[in-house]
Design goal:
Two copies of one chain form a homodimer. With 334 residues, chain A is of the alpha+beta class. Chain A has nine helices and 13 strands.
């Protein structure tokens, strides 16, 4: 049995300082973080993207990742979806008393590895500890800053009729991986989270086209939620084609078993883009060069009809409205 | 009985969107937030300060403030301590299922009022909900970006022998206010939290002197922790004079009753500065013009002796070493 986190690790005492200097900081150290002031100081000029997300995923370890990777890639991806190059992230931990310090160390290694893969630096952080039963092992918040180079204006509100809708790969993998781990389900085809950094993918898409109108990573609420957000924010209709949406066989099987629709299941390493029709081909080619988007596909288009709504042409030839998810789907998936 | 937060309020579903658009966003709305993309986009150039803190204070309402004010001012203050003008903050909520939406609304009003007082904008946010018993009502994370104008180089590592140590006012008020509320204690002199934004105070200090070396707000671990951090980071000794440290009678009485030392109790609206000796007078005058620093005082000085250590001359004429706090003092004070 290893050491456990105590309340005093969060109290600003010598124990806090030891935890930071021995367990937390070494995994993510860099000269900006080393200053150890209340704020990090960075030199930057231009249009900056700024975002935040908290991660409360349960369990904190799951096939294909853990809460540390998720927290880094989630913020990297949110910055990327504004067309920004992610640069700096913050890392704030809320730890439940009693967490194994060994587990924390593994997660910090994960954070460090994820930051290195994405090419971002953890420059500032915070640690709080709450009593047993007042949190659930570990919650992580990351915020991030990225730089938008050139004149890119990418927003969920910029999709225009005629744009092609491109999806970077199979849907539902993250949600089903977490679900299977949490519920102890065994599917015939195991599913791993798609948890991945998408900044390099976005950079290559932006190098291929100046006409990417909208980008978003379909996390909570899945592809259905993201497409509905585009349709509402852009006041346009969206048509997608069921047959063109890649779904891993394991995800499909697990969803059928559980009565879930993969359209509503969370992803953590996928993106949806609305791209001017004429550029869709070159954007797609650029995407398929990236290891996280080999299965990228045009799955539909934006239309001036049925504004604010998403319609799917089904495999059997009918059409159905894909609504915004209404209630609870899978809690604590990210 | 009003409405309660459900798990589905955090699932990216229509309920989440309703909560954001009806309860969360209106209290803090501005054009940058209104874009509602994954990231906010802001134009900025120069040296930027970037910081984050999570707030897990228990209870979430206490005399003199609530978790919302604390979360805004805490990050405003951390930015200010780098000499930055705070501009933009993020707001990420982790809500326990069952929280009264009315309480959430009061806290959001508080966040909005605090942001207005400090002159910062909430530009991006996130909401997660966890099951009953997996958090404690509400945790808030804020991250923030500020701009460092001019050539200021303020850091805990810049204190130099000869510098005067200035404290902006009485210590221990936040910690004792939260403690009294949480434990249902009644002190003869009620104590309210000093929770306040210090950015305007810092701006007037920087206008008065170019020779402010170190600034820090003594939150968790109190004044003792901050002075020890300065001493270690700057590899210098610090001498303080017990008689010069302002302590509200209510705090003194409560601390005596509970066997606590006000030096180790958290503040949320105070700062400590290390300032070149010759400028201490004009900085002090500027500080006393500000409503949050009427009691500002020189409490000691930096020395080349006993490097890394803080020594206090006591009221009875002896000296004692003020060590870094060791274990737990007051959990969940911020």
């Amino acid at each position: 049995m290893g050491e456990k986190i105590l309340l005093a690790h969060g109290s600003g005492s010598r124990l806090s300082h030891d935890l930071i200097s021995k367990v937390l900081a070494p995994a993510v150290m860099n000269p900006l973080l080393a200053r150890m002031d209340d704020s990090a100081v960075v030199e930057l000029s231009g249009r900056l993207a700024f975002t935040t997300d908290s991660y409360v995923v349960n369990p904190i370890f799951f096939p294909g990742g853990d809460i540390g990777r998720l927290a880094v890639f989630g913020t990297v991806n949110d910055l990327s979806m504004s067309g920004a190059r992610p640069l700096y992230i913050s890392l704030a931990l809320i730890i439940e008393e009693g967490l194994d310090i060994d587990d924390l160390q593994i997660i910090m290694q994960s954070v460090g590895g994820a930051a290195a893969e994405a090419g971002v630096q953890v420059v500032t952080g915070d640690t709080k500890v709450v009593e047993r039963g007042k949190a659930d092992r570990l919650f992580i918040n990351t915020a991030g800053i990225g730089l938008i180079e050139g004149t890119a204006d990418i927003s969920g509100s910029n999709a225009r009729p005629g744009d092609k809708i491109i999806l970077s790969g199979g849907i539902g993998e993250h949600g089903m991986a977490v679900m299977s781990q949490r519920e102890g389900l065994r599917f015939s085809l195991p599913v791993a989270s798609d948890c991945a950094p998408l900044n390099h993918l976005v950079a290559s898409m932006m190098a291929a086209s100046n006409n990417i109108h909208s980008l978003r990573d379909p996390t909570r609420g899945g592809l259905a939620c993201t497409l509905n957000e585009f349709a509402r924010q852009s006041d346009a209709g969206i048509v997608i084609d069921e047959d063109r949406i890649p779904v891993h066989d394991g995800v499909r099987g697990a969803c059928e078993l559980l009565g879930l629709d993969p359209l509503y299941i969370a992803n953590e390493g996928k993106l949806v883009a609305a791209v001017v029709e004429g550029d869709a081909g070159c954007v797609l080619s650029a995407m398929r060069e990236n290891k996280y988007a080999r299965q990228a596909a045009v799955i539909g288009y934006v239309t001036s009809e049925h504004r604010g709504r998403v319609v799917m042409k089904t495999s059997i030839g009918s059409s159905r409205i894909i609504d915004m998810p209404v209630g609870e789907i899978l809690p604590r998936i990210c």
